[in-house]
Amino acid sequence: MADYEVAAHMLGECECRVAEAKICLQAKIDALQMEYDLLAKEVPKKEKEEMRLEKIIIEAGARFKAILRRNEEFLVDSQCNMDEVEPNLKSAITVVELGSVDQEYGIEEESALYLPPSSMQQPSSLGLISMVVLQ
User: What global pTM score does this model have?
Assistant: First the structure.
């Protein structure tokens, strides 16, 4: 009978340990379930946030491309305008240079203003003076 009592006592201890293990495991399962529930709530939030960020990135990229296109158009238009203005600017510089030559040599403004266009294209300012004086 002593063996029976020892066995019953050992069985009782094992059952207690099993019950404690079940309680411990159930507590771990509950903790994991709570963590899972929290993560499950956060995932949609994060997915929404990621989708919102992706949308912002796409919109910013589209705006950047539009700005680039506008700037390209502006640069092309500016280049066309510069191409149109450049000859006028060169002739204006020539007239200004003629004005300074006129003042230096005492030529009247009226005669300098009526120079034929072919005379403005001569490279030598002395040639221009001789043409003005000759007219």
Answer: 0.34
Structurally, the chain folds into a number of domains equal to: 1
Instruction: Find the domain containing 62 and state its range.
Output: 2-134
How confident is the prediction along the chain (135 residues), in pLDDT tens digits per residue? 677 787 778 888 888 899 999 999 999 999 999 999 888 888 788 888 888 889 999 999 888 888 888 888 888 888 887 877 777 777 767 766 665 555 555 555 444 444 445 444 444 444 444 444 444
Pair of tokens at residue 84: 């149109």
For residue 83, the one-letter residue type is D
Separation CA 50–CA 44 (nearest Å): 10
Place of tokens 């500016």: 78
